[in-house]
Amino acid sequence: MGAIYMSRIDNSRTAGRTLASLLLLISLTSSLCAGVAAGARKPQRRPRISAPASYLSASHVASALSSSADTISDPYGKLTTDVQKEAGKKGWDGNDKTRVIVQLRDAASARLLALLASGGASVRAQHQSLEVLILDVPVRLLPALTHFREVDSISTDRELKPSGHVTATTGLDEAAAASSYGKLDAAGVGIAILDSGIDESHPSFAVKGDGPSRVRLSLDFTGEGRTDDPYGHGTHVAALALGNRAVGEGKYAGIASNADILNLRVLDSTGAGTVSSVLSALEWLYANRTKYNVRVVNLSLGAPAVTSYRLDPLCRAARRLVAAGIVVVAAAGNEGKDRDGLKVYGAVHSPGIEPSVITVGATNTFDTDSRADDAVATYSSRGPTRGYWTDALGVRHYDNFVKPEIVAPGNRLVAAKARDNYLVRTYPHLDATRAGGAAMMYMSGTSMAAPLVAGAAAVLVKVNNALTPNLAKAILMYTSQPLAGYNQFEQGAGQLNVEGAARFALGVRKDFASQLLGAPLQTTHEVEGGLVKALSDGLNGASAGAIEPRTNISGHGFAWSQTLVINHAVVFGGELLTRCQNVYGGGIMMSDAVIESGVTQSINRTVMTRGIMMSDQIVTSDGSPQGGGLPFLSTGILMGDGIMMSDGILMGDGILMGDGILMGDGILMGDGILMGDSHLDGDDTAPVQ
Question: How far is it, in rounded angstroms, from Cα 503 to Cα 460?
Fold first, then answer.
């Protein structure tokens, strides 16, 4: 790569408009990651009623309702950019309705409900646990809604699109062979797959291959009244996470091969859907998580990130699930390159921009079990995140978080094929079925990488039921393999290493969450056959120093990354996972580990010990642990609202573009399919010379 030039972006409204027309194409570009679907059919409950918002006068409402078609009356900055664009197209004084997602900070007041009723709005859904209203509202009413104290933000109900040898190359086989603990199959752990449905008849989902289905529940949130998989995406995703070892003599097994499956269908027959349908599924999941022992959720889907994670409804819903003890895994998206094959930075999709979520990029294994030749897939979306919020002066403030946290194999993976699905009918070369064998197909994308991490998370909580989402996420990053030649915007901490993660998780003390800051994180243990065997639970014993931070998979040995990616920082140090850190417990965000002020950041010593440090650079890894490599970008730059990179090209308006090339005019539709003039089948799997 040539010289990198960096400077602050002019975030004025004028500068934003200069790229707006070109970047509109990007907001239309759908991820190769997977999609979501339409509203669920479930009984609707009216919003709770609280005391009126006393400060809202009749003159406020009258003033808001009298806004001209050329004027945006949003004194509190609650209308996101996408709502403003939609309203501008329809006319601010018009009666045309638009569907919006209203996020509340308190119960809906009687005055708000009265305004909605008298103004011709209708409540499509109300999700109490997520504090969300889904409304069909006349455009002219939108400014009036911003005057209510309980209204936090208003965004559109955007359309979502799908993103696109596993046990050997991830290290699961190595862990299972060495384990004195028992089978690493996540039996009894529930994994929710929010996708296009699951073909339950496929043998990958049977108990031991020929028994009853492990799909404990199937619900449709698309309105189509079916839970199978006519599109073909969800079945493949579910099998990568949960497929059993009965198909192909174990060759096509998923990571958590005996876990329970919850099929929450949120993508319709075309693989498309809406934010509101996902919110319906997530609220159901929140209410029923204990009943089905749901510990992990996989979201191989996404939408372009046009709003800060603070306001994005998918991010806020995911955050609530994490706070409730569920590991949430999301695909990063597949917009890592433009039509000319040049790198693109800053195209991570929502909900992957949410800090509490484990966001997953994709790697290319070149069809070998050894990790020696593995590379980040060219299409895998790179950070930083570019959701933003706009202040009262019209200045945009970008999140700029380092994402993804981790990468996993996602290129041309073979897994279950749903019966008569759209993808294989339309693109027959995706069919990988062999004579006399089960129905299988190829797919590529971060959609395929995410379920490998979701399955790994399920294995970890099976190995050690005390793990919180924060600690499970930390272990997955800490034990990952840093890939030489790739920076942390491309790979996060590194590539998934199930062997190392399972070995480490098994030795974590069950009472770590109640220990004082700095207490040993590991139980007293010994090492048997390369895997930790816990000897006692909850006793002060040896630290993790006896666990060698190194893994060998298919003859290739590598050191663990021993780093964590948190917000704008890369964190490392000898006490990172050898001592109890308060951020690994419940009721706290991992992001609380870092204190940010202006363009500076530091470790929060009230929740992290003094043996932990923070890098001031995003680096291009040399494959060594603890962030070794060459500087790529100062982390201080990320603390501002914009940057310039790659040969001096201005990076603004929500996305960073590599090498000075803007996105082309093709529309990416999902799972590697480029509608119009070509189709993308994943990266070349020929060995690198």
Answer: 9
What secondary structure, in 3-state letters, does 478-531 show? HCCECCCCCEHHHHCCCECCHHHHHHHHHCECCCHHHCCCCCECECCEEEECCE
Separation of CA 252 from chain center: 24
Q: What is the value of pTM for the model shown?
A: 0.77
Do 172 and 184 contact (CB within 8 A), yes or no?
A: yes
61-93: per-residue pLDDT in tens?
444 444 444 445 566 678 888 888 888 888 888
Residues 6+ apart with CB under 8 A from 169: 365, 368, 369, 370, 371, 374, 409, 553, 554
Buried-exposed string 147-169: b where 16+ CB fall within 10 A, e elsewhere: bbbbbbbbbbbbbbbbbbbbbbb
Cβ-based neighbour number of residue 616 at 10 Å: 13
Residue with tokens 């895998």: 380
With helix as H, strand as E and coil as C, how does 179-222 read? Answer: CCCCCCCCCCCEEEEEECCCCCCCHHHEHHHCCCECEEEEEECC
- Calculate Rg over the CA atoms of the chain: 24
Q: For the chain, what's the residue count?
A: 689
- Predicted confidence (pLDDT) per residue in 578-619, tens digit: 999 999 998 888 899 999 887 889 999 999 999 999 999 999
Q: Please list, residue by residue across 62-76, b when 16 or more beta carbons sit within 10 angstroms of its beta carbon and e when fewer do.
A: eebbebeeeebbbee
Contact present, 335 and 302 (Cβ < 8 Å):
no
